[in-house]
């Protein structure tokens, strides 16, 4: 029996991969928030969540705090940070230094009151795979009633559309994993079902992966390599002689 894919299968594979790429690119347009009640990035140097009952939760930073946004893409971005720096009377306002992947982006003197700043992140700051390690270094204080070292209170960190509203390109590595899952699923499903059913099944999975990118990229990006392994094993088992 010939192992060369038919014209129908080649078209089905190409069309489902193209559709998956469009879905993943669309998911990349969704702003990426750190998500305090359910962290959607990797956090270090932040204290426990406070202010939940007020409806506006926040976390105090220590002297140094970092937030890792994995696989953000490789083009310019706009980072919005909402923060506050309440201090005891007589305590100087803090100087806050914001860096991305080791490069200093901006230095602020943060006054009292909640405020949001917009920080340009140029594309040459990002790693080849699009990872963004945001670092916040702030002057600290402590009080007799709270012995923690406190920097500034951060309410949100949100990675928004690239500068000048250019479409966001999907990050290379998770996009590759997603396309691999979609393609392997189509090829596997074709051994048991019609081209139409295989196309529908793999398209549904691509849409689910895209929804995962839009809702929680941290979890989705961690799960995808295991999905590739699982679909590859199933593909090999179904194609054994």
Question: Secondary structure elements and their pairing?
Answer:
Layout: H1 7-27, E1 32-33, E2 42-46, E3 59-69, E4 77-84, E5 95-100, E6 103-109, E7 115-121, E8 132-138, E9 141-143, E10 146-150, E11 153-160, H2 172-189, H3 195-215, H4 217-238
Antiparallel strand pairs: 1-11, 2-3, 3-8, 3-11, 4-7, 4-11, 5-6, 5-8, 9-10
Mean pLDDT: 85
| Count of DSSP-assigned helices | 4
Into which percentage range does the β-strand content fall? 25-35%
| Biggest beta sheet summary | 9 strands, antiparallel
Q: Note the gap between the termini.
A: 11 Å
Q: Explain this structure to me?
A:
The structure is a single chain. With 241 residues, this protein is α+β, with helices and mostly antiparallel strands. The chain has four helices and eleven strands. The strands form two sheets. Strands 1, 2, 3, 4, 5, 6, 7, 8 and 11 form a nine-stranded antiparallel β-sheet that branches. A hairpin with a 2-residue loop joins strand 5 and strand 6. The longest helix has 22 residues, at 217-238. It is elongated, with a radius of gyration of 23 Å. The model has no long low-confidence stretch (mean pLDDT 85).
Characterize this entry briefly.
Helices cover 34% and strands 29% of the residues. With 241 residues, the chain is α+β, with helices and mostly antiparallel strands.
């Amino acid at each position: 029996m010939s192992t060369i894919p038919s014209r129908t299968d080649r078209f089905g594979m190409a069309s489902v991969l193209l559709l998956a790429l469009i879905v993943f690119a669309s998911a990349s347009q969704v702003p990426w928030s750190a998500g305090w009640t359910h962290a959607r990035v990797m956090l270090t140097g932040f204290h426990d969540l406070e202010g939940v009952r007020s409806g506006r939760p926040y976390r105090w930073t220590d002297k140094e705090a970092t937030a890792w946004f994995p696989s953000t893409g490789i083009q310019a971005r706009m980072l919005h940070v909402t923060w506050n720096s309440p201090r005891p009377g007589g305590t100087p306002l803090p100087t806050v230094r914001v860096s991305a992947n080791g490069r200093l982006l901006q230095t602020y003197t943060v006054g009292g009151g909640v405020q949001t700043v917009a920080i340009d992140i140029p594309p040459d700051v990002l790693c080849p795979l699009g990872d963004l390690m945001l670092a916040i270094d702030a002057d600290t204080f402590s009080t007799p009633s709270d012995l923690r070292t406190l920097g500034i209170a951060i309410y949100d960190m949100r990675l928004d559309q690239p500068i000048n509203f250019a479409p966001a390109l999907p990050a290379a590595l998770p996009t590759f994993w997603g396309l691999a899952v979609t393609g392997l699923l189509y090829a596997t499903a074709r051994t048991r079902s019609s081209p139409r059913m295989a196309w529908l099944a793999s398209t549904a999975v691509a849409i689910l992966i895209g929804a995962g990118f839009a809702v929680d990229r941290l979890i989705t990006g961690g799960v995808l390599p295991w999905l590739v392994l699982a679909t590859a094993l199933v593909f090999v088992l179904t194609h054994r002689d």
